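Incident log, entry 3
Record: Transaldolase (305 residues)
Problem: checksum mismatch between cached and fresh output.
Input:
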Amino acid sequence: MSKQNTPQKLNGQSPCKKMKLNDSDALVQLKQYTTVVADTGDFKEIAQYSPEDATTNPSLILQAANKPEYEKLIDDAINWSKQNYNRFFAPAQARSSIRKGKKKEETKGNEQAEEFDFGKLSVEKQGQFLSFVADVVCVNFGKEILKLVPGVVSTEVDARLSFDKQGNINRAKNIIKLYEEFGISKDRILIKIASTWEGIKAAEALRKDKIKCNLTLLFSFAQAVACAEAQVALISPFVGRILDWHRSKNPDQNFSDERDPGVISVQKIYNYYKKFDYKTIVMVKIYVFCFFLNNKKGGFFQKHQ
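Fresh output:
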């Protein structure tokens, strides 16, 4: 990863300028200066580009889940959730007895899944169970992705918790607990949380438990500064969405290349972090390498450190 305060040049050209390279050549060169991160739930796309890290979100997981080759991951998540829901959400006083019977439970897992009766749960617990299944699905995809990348994977907390600090904290800890159930250390996980005030405060609290977070839905310099002051691990500015907003308000204005307000925003954030020596990583969607990946459905991220 580049340690410079200004973007490195590729083949003597500024990375913001178009280069006549084929996709594979440009990707190889880009990897010399930054970390490439796959933004997809499709394992084939990840294997094709050999990125360092990967990030997912529920919409990407849904796209992948609709493909027949991923049906087993969904079925496994549902069955595992039926077998383990009570163990995960049992009252504190009941947990010790549940742990003692865990081994016996595992041998009768399929029977328990069949005995699980969703209809007998209260409305509140039904919602809790469905959220649990959704998290297990995301973790199932995450653990498979980690077999393909040497680095980390980002798994997103339910966006409906964006303005709920404690809800974000609880859900993040459950996701980490699920990964640990499958033998994956939290060192390889980034919890993706919206960069609202509540989300940033949740990430700050989670950092004390050595849980790293990826703050997303970041559109402003103020959000970036707040994330840096909270010492979050990584932010994901939405370059494209910033540009979309400006285009909608000023349809006749030229926003190409260095006039792109999304790019300008990221440059400001990046330079500010470097000036004040913040360690928070800036991960940007379709920035340096838009010239060669703009026709790819999966898309990739660039990460500066």
